[in-house]
């Protein structure tokens, strides 16, 4: 069956077991692997590398599009294969090794990795490993359920290993639009002016001489673990829908809004799902990941087209998508992540972006990566690409975590990923703060009144009152600004009766 997928006959003699292909990867190399939020990831070669590492020294720098599925990061971390990892991950085992300093993790904006590769600012890719549906008659690689950085890795690498996944339907061919920016210094504008527009090829163009090995696999993507909407995420969605409707009535948005982007994960997916019951029609998406909510919006007739870099779905929705692939292909497109996340295009299209915060402070700064300011969670992903260049930049979060022991609205975030300059709207289950056109002192009042949980609202108000007495454009009590985080570290709660409350 694999002979039908390898349409350039002279490449058939490159088919080999994963162990033999993995021998191309040697200790100290930089490897670029396909995979973006569990979708389209390599499945056989990484496991072969882990088995080999049990017998000989093998440490690599691993680049991907985003996170990998099938426990690949866990398997490689446990086998001590990973010396350096970028630009994103979500695995608990790898996270522990990162926070222990055993794996050097480079947290990057997802649009930037291949730009740094092209500019020779980071180590070049020695070997690329790319999952594919097929290889074309000219040696082009047809990706599976993600594009991510695969196209650039394949073009820039010295050698390429292709994993042909027979579990992926051949009908995925035609879903992709592969376009990469032209070289500097005379780079041309990217000719994309609408989410539904095609500007590239349906495969990754490649000199077939670079394909050093082909591995045949039969393994599905890992399903998304995003949870369905709950009461609080429905409330967040309701507040956002009301805000967008107000923008339409004020004449600032059309009834079809602007193209939408939503970050990965349970909260952003659930909030986007809330648009199913909204009055908006003919919506379009220009995002990096299509989740269950995208399919629901397409099926409900609310969404007319969706562009992204990967499709990451729960098991049931994944089966539905593949079973009706031809219908969805007319309304879905997958692009390289440097196009899906490119600042030029995002600013041109005027996106409404919806991303998730770990915590926000009273002036609108957002932490989306570090727990307690020190421990990496997953990474910034594409949220910075989108927030900085959005028409309206929205961040969503539940107001508290760990049964109220943690407030997601704090005096000062413990780590800044998105400054207040890139945050227009903050939404929790309690309400929405529209920060546009407000000075810092005005922002604080809006965020506390509308977004903070009642458990912490008075404490935040007291902090602002006392800080304001000391003056400043952005008033802070430096000696107390991170006291809530310190209290949680020592006592397991941001509440209590210590100095920060005694002063109230």
From TrEMBL:
Entry GO MF terms: hydrolase activity
InterPro entries for the chain: AcetylCoA_hyd_C (IPR026888), AcetylCoA_hyd_C_sf (IPR038460), ActCoA_hydro (IPR046433), ActCoA_hydro_N (IPR003702), NagB/RpiA_transferase-like (IPR037171), Succinate_CoA_transferase (IPR017821)
NCBIfam families: YgfH_subfam (TIGR03458)
Lineage, broadest ranks: Bacteria, Pseudomonadati, Pseudomonadota, Betaproteobacteria, Burkholderiales
This protein's record includes keyword Hydrolase: yes
Record's keyword terms, sorted: Hydrolase
Residue ranges of domain Acetyl-CoA hydrolase/transferase N-terminal in the record: 12-215
PANTHER family: ACETYL-COA HYDROLASE
Family: Belongs to the acetyl-CoA hydrolase/transferase family.
UniProt source species: Cupriavidus basilensis
Protein name in UniProt: Acetyl-CoA hydrolase/transferase family protein
Domain Acetyl-CoA hydrolase/transferase C-terminal, residue spans: 322-462
């Amino acid at each position: 069956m694999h002979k039908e997928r390898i349409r350039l006959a002279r490449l058939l003699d490159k088919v080999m077991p994963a162990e033999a292909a993995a021998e191309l990867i040697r200790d100290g190399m930089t490897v670029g692997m396909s995979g973006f939020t569990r979708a389209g990831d390599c499945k056989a070669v990484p496991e072969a590398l882990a088995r080999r590492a049990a017998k000989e020294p093998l440490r690599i720098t691993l680049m991907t599009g985003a996170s990998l599925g099938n426990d690949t990061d866990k398997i490689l971390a446990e086998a001590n294969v990973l010396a350096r990892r970028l630009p994103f991950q979500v695995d608990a085992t790898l996270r522990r090794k990162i926070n222990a300093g055993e794996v050097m993790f480079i947290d990057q904006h997802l649009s930037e990795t291949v730009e740094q590769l092209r500019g020779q600012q980071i180590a070049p890719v020695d070997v690329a490993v790319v999952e594919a549906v097929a290889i074309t008659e000219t040696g082009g690689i047809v990706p599976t359920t993600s594009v991510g950085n695969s196209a650039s890795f394949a073009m820039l690498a010295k050698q390429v290993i292709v994993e042909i996944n027979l579990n992926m339907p051949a009908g995925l061919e035609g879903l992709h639009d592969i376009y990469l920016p032209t070289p500097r210094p005379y780079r041309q504008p990217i000719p994309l002016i609408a989410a539904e527009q095609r500007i590239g090829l349906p495969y990754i163009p490649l000199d077939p001489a670079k394909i050093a090995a082909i591995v045949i696999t039969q393994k599905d993507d890992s399903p998304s673990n995003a949870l369905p909407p709950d009461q609080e995420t429905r409330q967040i969605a309701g507040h956002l829908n009301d805000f967008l409707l107000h923008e339409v009535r004020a004449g600032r948005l059309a009834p079809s809004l602007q193209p939408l982007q939503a970050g990965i994960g349970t909260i952003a997916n659930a909030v986007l799902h809330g648009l199913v019951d909204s009055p908006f029609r003919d919506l379009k998406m220009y995002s990096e990941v299509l989740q269950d909510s995208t399919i629901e919006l397409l099926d409900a007739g609310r969404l007319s087209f969706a562009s992204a870099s990967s499709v990451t779905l729960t098991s049931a929705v994944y089966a539905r998508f593949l079973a009706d692939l031809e219908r969805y292909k007319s309304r879905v497109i997958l692009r390289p992540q440097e196009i899906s996340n490119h600042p030029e295009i995002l600013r041109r299209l005027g996106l409404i972006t919806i991303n998730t915060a770990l915590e926000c402070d009273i002036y609108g700064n957002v932490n989306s990566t570090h727990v307690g300011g020190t421990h990496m969670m997953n990474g910034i992903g594409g949220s910075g690409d989108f927030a900085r260049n959005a028409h309206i930049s929205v961040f969503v979060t539940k107001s508290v975590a760990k049964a109220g022991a943690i407030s997601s609205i704090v005096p000062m975030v413990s780590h800044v990923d998105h400054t207040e300059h890139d945050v227009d709207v903050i939404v929790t289950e309690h309400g929405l703060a529209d920060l546009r056109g407000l000075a810092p002192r005005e922002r604080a009042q809006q965020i506390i009144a509308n977004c903070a949980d009642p458990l912490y609202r008075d404490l935040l108000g007291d902090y602002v009152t006392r800080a304001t007495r000391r003056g400043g454009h952005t008033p802070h009590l430096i000696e107390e600004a991170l006291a809530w985080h310190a209290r949680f570290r020592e006592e397991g709660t941001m509440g209590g009766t210590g100095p920060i409350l005694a002063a109230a």
